[in-house]
Specification:
A: Aldehyde Dehydrogenase, Chain A, domain 2; six-stranded mixed beta sheet; 15 helices; B: 312 residues; alpha/beta
């Protein structure tokens, strides 16, 4: 059929840009700054170690600064735990396990966990500000994702506390003892919740080590734990860097180690634990493929691509950092993606309209820059929307590389920043082969309007999580974890209980 | 995509091939995106500028069986000077009435920049013979309408007669002559985002100037996700043809906050070029007073009672 078209009236601007047809997202109606009020949040000048329910000074008296990555200003200083401090924390945890927590009725355990969840909700405004200040993530993400999801994890696992006997087909279960938990800097509070909530629900006690660049929300969590009147020593928090973590891993009285972080450190932990009998779960890096077929809902796929790689500045282990586009829609999707990226607002994490906040640390910023330079050197085409970065602080413009080959470093190494590498494919089989051709295997995304194809792809992709027509969706009831060098063990859901229980 | 067909005689000049297969729309994702854009924080100067922009884009509408010349005159006065004594408040874009009231509106708006829009084509159902719809359109234009808001034949659309729907639109466009055409899809009746997208594509390929969500007679009327789907259709059409089609959500937009949400949708989907009354309109009957109230509040720091604003 043909439809008669009345000749369009050309506008002057249209004539000027004829043939170009690029949308413009300048400042026709710009948003005024909308900073979140922070005056109600009290950050102490110094934080001690949280051991046995009390704030305790570190043995060696050493402290380190924690900075705001968006201003490079010091927010506070926290204690650096030595091996002796870690030992004190583990002994407190063991004591609490033997005397209180393992003897408590499961229903009562659950009540404490519920209480923590509720106080997190009550103090959510403070928590999201602290999280954005200390870590650099946009306030809209800490407000709408990190903090509510952290509370949701405590709520979810609180409910499991007295139902563990039903979790594994009626098989009897028992707690492990003391869990040593080491968490990363990308979702500090949420990762603490992922680790602490199931450990407590299963009847274990905990020594947690937050990342050295983002310890503050864990300090607030310690206050919340005090407020919830959790028995002393059930949760202990020791701040410090790699040496503190190593001491925790090596401590002979720890029964279980849970680590989320880089694959490199994960391998070292696994080596250190070989032959010790300690139980281990690792949640490590990723280089996820986000696969878009030509029949996908493309506009929503573009939203999903943006969410997949620019959420939390790309500091997400399951980030969709490799975009695999079916060749026939490559140009259209890239055009849509660029227009969409032009609307992203980079800047002050505390501004409610900020989409991309600060890179977590100078070190990470340097790593991202180095890998992007390698991408250019290897011949990929680099593009970022025009955007002004703040003069102070660690910022990086959202970046997309097209013309990327499988062998490029930016297609193989985890960048852990707002950088997307785009590859193409022609057939389903080629998409699967490229997606799986990585030593990681944490997550993947598939976009297609065919339900059958989504399920077929999901069975072929070597990834712990496969999202269909969405990306970066998390729920406490859904297990999360990796294949291959992305780690082992699952967090979340019923499966997440297994990491903290003996199942007979 | 659908490039303008080249070649052919003068008769086929500007003829587009039919739209290709309708791109699918993912309901959950599009609703999420529309809701996320509703969370933009619009404060202070941005709010004031946005609200004034919204007023300048408003099609002040009255489409009641009981409409009288007096009511239309009052509405026209309001559209000309929404806030007498405050020159920073722009006039509205248009007044939208039934055809018989077009002359009244035309006269009342003489000398102003406010345009007269008339509904036509057997509004709101569209269930009349094509000849009647075309006559309806021609008469409304003769009576002085600058803009025609037509309805598509939802019966034909839902039964799969897309060619018929497109032909009708093309013929109504022809009947419009110089008048601008807005095509009302009545999204509340066509059942899915996929259909909204398909109807948008049909209307744009058939030559409309604007696509519009609703008559205001059916619930749900305009919603942010439906508007987003239509804006994305406009974007794809622009990519493919270079033509800028306008957008008009109508019905159910009652608060200043909602109006700002729609502006955010436009700003972040189509960008600067569409932030003008030439390409974006808000169809509303009761929205204006809430916007005026919010503007007053921004200026004075306090809310005024509703009786400080004329009810028209």
């Amino acid at each position: 059929m043909t439809i008669k078209l009345v000749e369009p009236k050309a506008t002057a601007a249209g004539d000027r840009r004829r043939g170009e047809r690029r949308l413009e997202f300048a400042h026709a109606w710009d948003y005024a700054p909308a900073p979140e009020a922070v005056d109600h949040v009290k950050i102490l000048p110094r934080y001690e170690l949280f051991i046995d329910g009390k704030w305790q000074a570190p043995e060696k008296g050493r402290y380190f600064d924690t900075l705001s990555p968006s201003t490079e200003q010091k927010l506070s200083e926290v204690a650096e735990a030595s091996a002796e401090d870690v030992d004190r924390a583990v002994r407190a945890a063991r004591h609490a396990y033997d005397r209180v927590w393992s003897r408590m009725k499961p229903l009562e355990r659950g009540k404490y966990i519920f209480r923590i969840a509720r106080i997190i909700q009550e103090r959510s405004r403070e928590l999201c500000i602290v999280e954005s200040l200390d870590g650099g993530k946009p306030i809209k993400e800490s407000r709408d994702f990190d903090v509510p999801t952290a509370a949701a994890h405590f709520f979810y696992y609180a409910g499991w506390a007295d139902k563990l006997g039903y979790a594994f087909g009626g098989r009897p279960v028992s707690a492990l003892g003391v869990a040593g938990q080491i968490i990363p800097w990308n979702f500090p509070l949420l990762m603490a919740a992922w680790k602490i909530a199931p450990a407590l629900a299963c009847g274990n006690t905990v020594v947690l080590k937050p990342a050295e660049t983002t310890p503050l929300s864990a300090m607030f969590l310690a206050e919340i734990i005090q407020e919830a009147e959790l028995p002393d020593g059930v949760v202990n928090i020791v701040t410090g860097a790699g040496a503190t973590g190593a001491a925790l891993v090596a401590h002979p009285d720890v029964n279980k180690v849970a680590f989320t972080g880089s694959t490199d450190v994960g391998k070292r932990i696994q080596k250190a634990l070989a032959g010790t009998g300690k139980k281990l779960t690792l949640e490590l890096g990723g280089k996820a493929a986000n696969i878009v077929f030509a029949d996908a809902p493309l506009d929503q796929a573009v939203d999903g691509i943006v969410n997949g790689i620019f959420f939390n500045q790309g500091h997400v282990c399951c980030a969709g950092s490799r975009l695999l586009l079916e060749e026939s829609v490559h140009d259209l999707v890239i055009r849509k993606l660029r227009d969409r990226m032009a609307t992203l607002r980079v800047g002050d994490p505390l501004d409610k309209n900020t989409d991309i906040g600060a890179i977590n640390s100078r070190m990470q910023l340097e790593k991202i820059k180095e890998l992007c330079a390698a991408g250019e050197a290897e011949g990929a085409e680099r593009w970022s929307p025009p955007c002004e970065l703040p003069a102070k602080g660690f910022f990086f413009a959202p970046t997309v590389f097209t013309g990327v080959a499988q062998s490029h470093r930016i297609a193989r190494e985890e960048i852990f920043g707002p950088v997307l590498s785009v590859l193409t494919f022609r057939t389903e089989a080629e998409a699967v082969e490229k997606a799986n051709n990585t030593f990681y295997g944490l997550s993947a995304g598939v976009w297609s309007n065919k339900g059958a194809r989504l399920f077929k792809m999901a069975t072929q992709l070597e990834a712990g999580v496969v999202w269909g027509n969405t990306y970066n969706k998390f729920d406490p009831s859904s297990p999360f974890g990796g294949y291959k060098e992305s780690g082992f063990g699952r967090e979340g859901g019923r499966q997440g209980l297994a990491a903290y229980l003996h199942v007979d | 995509m659908h490039p303008i067909a080249s070649g052919g005689g003068p008769a086929e000049r500007g003829t587009l091939p039919p739209p290709g297969p309708t791109p699918p729309i993912d309901r959950i994702a599009v609703e999420e995106r529309a809701a996320a854009l509703g969370k933009r924080s619009i404060k202070k100067a941005t709010k004031v500028a946005g609200l004034k922009l919204a007023i300048s884009m408003m099609d002040l509408t009255t489409l009641e069986g009981a409409d009288s010349p007096g009511k239309v005159r009052a509405l026209c006065q309001k559209a000309r000077t929404p806030e007498p004594g405050d020159e920073s408040i722009p006039s509205c874009a248009a007044v939208c009435v039934y055809p018989t009231l077009v002359p009244v509106a035309k006269k009342a708006l003489e000398g102003s920049r406010v345009r007269v829009a008339s509904v036509a084509t057997a509004f709101p159902s569209g269930l009349s013979p094509l000849s009647v719809k075309l006559e309806d359109t021609r008469r409304a234009v003769e009576l002085g309408a600058d803009e025609i808001d037509m309805v598509i034949d939802r019966g034909a659309f839902l039964s799969g007669q897309y060619q018929r729907v497109a032909d009708e639109i093309a013929q109504v466009k022809e009947a419009c002559g110089e008048a601008h055409l807005k095509v009302i899809l009545e999204t509340g009746e066509i059942g899915s985002y996929d259909n909204v997208r398909r109807a948008s594509d049909l209307a744009m390929h058939a030559g409309t100037d604007f696509i519009k969500t609703s008559t205001g007679k059916i619930q749900p009327a305009a919603t942010p996700p439906v508007t987003l789907v239509m804006l994305e259709a406009i974007r794809d059409f622009y990519y493919a043809t270079g033509r800028r089609i306008g957008m008009k959500p109508a019905g159910g937009i009652r608060t200043a906050k909602q109006a700002l949400h729609y502006l955010v949708l436009v700003k972040e989907t189509l960008g600067d070029a569409w932030l003008t009354p030439d390409l974006f309109r808000l169809g509303a009957s009761t929205l204006l007073n809430d916007v005026l109230m919010q503007l007053k509040k921004e200026a004075s720091g306090a809310y005024q009672g509703p009786d400080y604003f004329s009810k028209d």
